[in-house]
Structures are given as structure tokens and as C-alpha cells.
Amino acid sequence: MTERPQMPDRAIMLRQYAAEQFAAFDVQLYLDTHPNDRSALDLFDKYQKNAQKYKKEFEGMYGPLSADSAMYGSWRWVEEPWPWEREFN
């Protein structure tokens, strides 16, 4: 019997996306004062691509992360419980 691969945890996927977004923003701030730094431009591009990849994966499994994503899909987050409606330990 073969085991099904486990799906990544929602929180882990969200953290991966947030980390790439943060890194891209941080490099973008550096580029504001160093616009000709080729290695920083390459790094920014890498973080942006990674963030978009994680966002696409997350949204494919859990729905849109932002309003601009929701315009092309469903408004699934309104179907789920709001944070204050969830039960905590």
C-alpha cells in the first residue's frame, strides 16, 4: 500500500509566501538607493518569482489571499469561519 503524500499545512504555506514577499520588499527598499546593483535586481526578481509561486499554490488550495486575486475566482473566504468564530484550545 502506498502512502499519499501529505499536503503542506496552510500556516506553513502562508509563512513561505510571507517570507518571500518580505524579502522582495526588503530588497526593493535597497534598490531605491542602489538601482544599478545587478545582483540586488536578480535577488529581487528571484524573491518576486518565489512569492508568486507560493501565492499561486496557496490560492489553488485555500482561495484568494487578496482582493485582486478574488476578482478572478471565488470569494471563498466569506464561506469560512472568521477568526473570532473559530474555536481555540
Overall spatial form: elongated
The amount of beta strand, in percent, is: under 5%
Mean pLDDT: 83
Taken in chain order, the helices and strands follow as HHH
Radius of gyration: 17 Å
Strand tally: 0
Helical fraction equals: 55-70%
SSE class: mainly alpha
How many separate helices?
3
Largest sheet: none
Distance between the termini: 35 Å
Which secondary structure elements does this structure contain, and how are they paired or packed?
Blueprint: H1 10-33, H2 38-62, H3 67-70
Helix pairs in contact: 1-2
Task: Tell me what you see in this structure.
The mean pLDDT is 83. The protein has helices spanning 10-33, 38-62, 67-70. It has a domain at 10-65. The protein starts with 9 loop residues before the first helix and ends in a 19-residue tail after the last helix. It is an all-alpha fold and 89 residues long.
What tags apply to this protein structure?
single chain; 89 residues; mainly alpha; elongated
